[in-house]
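Inputs:
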Amino acid sequence: MSLLHALSVSPGSGEPIYRQLMDQIRRLAAGGQLQPGSEMPSVRELAQALAVNPMTVSKVYSLLELEGVLLRRRGLGMQVADQGAATHGQDERLALLRGTLQRAALEAKQLELEPAAVLALLQQLLEEKP
Amino acid sequence: MSLLHALSVSPGSGEPIYRQLMDQIRRLAAGGQLQPGSEMPSVRELAQALAVNPMTVSKVYSLLELEGVLLRRRGLGMQVADQGAATHGQDERLALLRGTLQRAALEAKQLELEPAAVLALLQQLLEEKP
DNA sequence: TATGCTGTATTGGTTGATTAATACACTAGA
DNA sequence: TCTAGTGTATTAATCAACCAATACAGCATA
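Outputs:
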């Protein structure tokens, strides 16, 4: 899997770019798609791929190092930490998705949508290819 | 229904407050929970209830007036416009939820979660009382 | 008219996010 | 040693979001 393709940002979405990236990297680590010891793209590589400033990516890497998700190795590139990439159990991973699902549920209620229709659409989206 | 209780903001969520409010009001209008001709709370009322600045609420109201969702009436308070509150069909309302569900689906995939588990949790959240 | 509400205009300020540009320290390989 | 990469530090600037404070114009009521 090329991490450069797995990560994306929506600059106009209203959420800061650095947060989007942090969230995504956390999820990939929790889901086991980032293996302990594997190399992260360099700040310059990722910044170029995403068309953002290298210092923005550096900020992401710094904050994730503080969380224990990544290991910083100046001159060598960042690495996925053992702790950070420990694949979590399904319940823990579901808990990471809970916030987004709560938001979806709230929006569905504001829109007065039937649960069955909402669940059908989500199922369709879950089954689509990336 | 008290609109003051139906609206909320999460200031630390990373999404601008004014966008959160606009999104919510749009959804309530599309879902028929805001009736044409009904009164919106004053900018001061809503600002106080949400602990934000009145000019922030005024910005929301101005932008929604540009969209045709609200009608501005200086000195009289804002009103829900006819066009804005036209209850949309289910397909149109589902389309308004699609963005959030796509995000949820993407996050579930990043977390390597089984669709069945995701759908079960969303169903539970949809059935919970507000 | 006065009062109390309504939304708006305006000025000035703060904060967070993002960026450009430059330079430094570190690593690996030739 | 030099080169080419690595992440970091630093300065300065811009922009969006948000705010406080004040005042104005409009509306309704007494």
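Remarks. Residues 3-80 of chain B form a domain with the Arc Repressor Mutant, subunit A fold (CATH 1.10.10.10). Residues 1 and 33 of chain B are 8 Å apart (CA to CA).
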